[in-house]
Write a structure and sequence with these properties.
heterodimer, A: alpha/beta, Rossmann fold, seven-stranded parallel β-sheet, three-stranded mixed β-sheet, 12 strands, 42% helix, 15% strand, B: alpha/beta, Glycerol-3-phosphate (1)-acyltransferase, seven-stranded mixed β-sheet, 41% helix
């Protein structure tokens, strides 16, 4: 049962987002049909499109108005977004994982994004927007896996988008693509170079993904492309930043105490919803409620930092990584040494974004999950 | 902290014991408080009131976004006040020429360690009325040093990048800039009080943000750590801008020599023009600032009767 208060709060923005979507199908339908009419495709995939999706066990009804396609919908953030969006929009989820506690009106396709089936999803219904959350961050995966998942799959997604003329793309990148550097300005604007992969090769495909979205932005001016670069997303999500803050004795690099920004997952969801409004395009940094030194952040979550000198921390992390006891590659120590904070003034003025979750709320959510774990 | 539920006796003991301040931190705090009290007695000024008079732009969680921490700064100000009033016996001239609001304080750099910045900063904090809190732009290199990289932001120092400077000036803050950079601070003794090349960035910044530039001559810094040579290979090895050879170190004197500092604040320059102008046009304005500082330095040297008095 959705909380009535929250539903009301989200209604105005959602309503704004819906209006043009109502007119759109009539304007867009001939174009989409034109693609079919050319007969460039063999008839076989059309049949596939009408087949029920393999896992949901439910026949996807043809949408009367545009649906929002969310990739990586089974992640924590994807689920949150789907739960917010399905109150006002039709939501189509795509993920390799099953969506267990799925609300009834969300259509979920359990497919690999690299498969041909992806195309049928686009063909089968009127997609008005794509939100790309299906990014693989796991540093344990091989470079090849990550590349094929993050780049090849995303490229395919972009191909389908241009083919079926989807009018909106929202890509969740991250402030990590700027990379922590000693010579970073305190606040990075959207124009700052993406140097995230300079010292950490594992970031390469995330930077490339961001670049791909940027080139799509210029190549396809008819599609409104939005790239969101939030700072460390924390809360109940399972990402490196949240997992780090949940540790009882998180490692800090001795003599370094950089300023940190964190943002609540629900604020990111709100930013994505704002980005889905028609007329919004561009790159936006997303910042949370205020920045504070890492040591203070850890203390307020309830942890006690363990100060370790840089060389020792590097050697120890490398060894733990090799023994599969830690999931933090040692190159990520730079995040604990140098600033990588973003300036969100563009998101405030153009997107109308403002973080609503206070720092207490953010830290409370991080803490709560830790106690559940312990 | 929810600790209950463990069947192991004293399982939460270690954690709860350290939840407060660590003993080391408590000792440091009590020593620091004593230093502040001594400094207040010696200087005869209420340092805490001075710190409280600082206006910074706090963010939503009550922290300065650049990392300034009043707790740490009060100990630093106490140390700086002792150096300023007792050790270097600094004389300050014309501090009321510093205009209100955004300002760039441009000075000659000297003395191996950036004590000249400390002296200008403490003069602004202790002698200006109301107290001004200047931030200085530090070398990027310092952000890679452990401890220093923690300490500097807490004292309000900012890594010297144009973006940072622009943001701070737009917040109506005052910045200390040494356009000579590392070239100036690591001069050998034979080149004392001869200004080296100035960078052009500060004038472009002033033009862009409409900021007045206050020239400052610092006298006394060159003699605190006389250096006879710059040992370049070792500097390169340690990744430092310079490695000065200081004879006083051979006699075990690690502290700077107690020279008498004199700070001369000049009339502010208010330039107008295009910040993206050719280097030649900008160089003219830079030259004007540099020659003003050089002549202020020369006059100050003529007026002083000795290095230590």
């Amino acid at each position: 049962m959705p909380n009535p208060q929250t539903t009301d709060r989200h209604k105005p923005s959602a309503r704004r987002g819906r209006e043009p979507a109502r007119e759109r199908p009539s304007a867009r339908a001939p174009v989409a049909r034109g693609v079919f009419g050319h007969g460039a495709e063999s008839p076989k995939p059309v049949e596939q499109a009408q087949r029920p999706a393999p896992t949901t066990g439910e026949f996807p009804k043809p949408a009367t108005e545009g649906a929002v396609l969310v990739t990586g919908v089974c992640g924590r953030l994807g689920k949150l977004l789907a739960r917010e969006l399905h109150r006002t929009d039709k939501v189509v989820g795509v993920d390799r994982r099953p969506f267990a506690d799925r609300p009834k009106d969300i259509v979920h396709h359990q497919v690999d994004m690299r498969r041909k089936k992806m195309k049928d999803i686009f063909r089968g219904r009127n997609i008005r927007a794509v939100v790309h959350l299906g990014v693989l961050h796991d540093p344990r995966r091989s470079d090849r896996d990550r590349h094929s998942w993050n780049i090849v799959a995303f490229q395919k997604l972009l191909d389908y988008m241009s083919q079926y003329e989807v009018p909106k793309l929202v890509v969740l990148s991250g402030a990590n693509v700027y990379g922590p550097q000693p010579n970073n300005p305190q606040f990075l604007t959207e124009d700052a170079p993406l140097l995230g992969a300079q010292h950490f090769g594992g970031m390469r495909d995330l930077v490339e993904l961001d670049m791909l979205a940027q080139s799509f932005f210029w190549k396809h001016p008819d599609t409104e492309t939005v790239v969101l670069r939030p700072c460390h997303i924390v809360g109940r999500v399972h990402n490196a930043a949240s997992n780090y803050l949940r540790l009882d004795r998180p490692v800090m690099v001795m003599g370094f105490d950089p300023m940190m920004q964190v943002v609540h997952e629900k604020d990111v969801v709100r930013a994505i919803q704002l980005a889905l409004r028609p007329g919004v395009r561009g790159i936006y940094n997303i910042r949370g409620p205020g920045e504070m030194p890492l040591s203070r952040l850890i203390r307020e979550v309830g942890g006690r930092p363990r100060q370790v000198p840089t060389p020792l921390a590097k050697v120890a992390l490398d060894q733990l990584w090799k023994l599969r006891l830690s999931s933090f590659p040692s190159q990520e120590l730079d995040h604990l040494r140098y600033v990588c904070m973003v300036d969100d003034s563009r998101a405030r003025t153009e997107l109308g974004y403002e973080p609503v979750h206070s720092i207490d709320r953010v830290l409370k959510d991080v803490r709560r999950l830790r106690h559940q774990l312990s | 902290m929810a600790q209950g539920g463990s069947i192991v006796p004293f399982a939460g003991w270690r954690r709860t014991r350290f939840l407060g301040e660590s003993p080391l931190r408590q000792v440091l705090r009590s020593v620091g408080d004593r230093v502040v009290r001594i400094a207040e007695d010696v200087v005869g000024q209420d340092l805490d009131a001075r710190i409280a008079g600082i206006k910074t732009h706090l963010n939503e969680v009550g922290h300065d976004p650049f990392g300034f921490d009043p707790e740490t700064s009060r100990y630093a100000l106490a140390m700086a006040a002792l150096l300023h009033r007792r050790y270097f016996r600094t004389q300050v001239f014309g501090i009321n020429r510093v205009p209100e609001g955004r300002v760039l304080i441009v000075a000659n750099h000297s003395g191996q360690l950036p004590l000249d910045a400390v002296m200008i900063g403490s003069a602004m904090m202790l002698d200006a009325d109301p107290p001004r809190f200047p931030r200085s732009m530090v070398e990027t290199w310092t952000a890679e040093l452990p401890f220093i990289s923690t300490l500097y932001p807490r004292l309000g120092q900012v890594v010297g990048s144009p973006e940072n400077a622009r943001r701070l000036l737009q917040q109506e803050e005052s910045l200390i800039v040494f356009p000579e950079g590392a070239r100036g601070i690591s001069k050998t003794y034979d080149q004392r009080y001869q200004l080296t090349d100035f960078g052009l960035g500060f004038v472009r910044l002033a033009l862009e943000t409409g900021t007045p530039i206050v020239p400052v001559a610092v006298i006394g810094g060159e003699e605190q750590y006389p250096s006879i040579a710059d040992f370049k290979p070792l500097a390169r090895l340690l990744n430092m801008p310079a490695f000065p050879v200081m004879p006083q170190m051979f006699f075990g004197m690690i502290a700077p020599l107690p020279t008498k500092y004199r700070l001369y604040f000049g009339e502010p320059f208010r330039f107008s023009g295009d910040p993206d102008d050719d280097d030649s046009a900008i160089e003219e304005k830079v030259w004007l600032v540099k020659s003003t500082i050089q002549s202020m330095v020369n006059r100050g040297l003529r007026e002083r009767k000795g290095v230590f008095i």
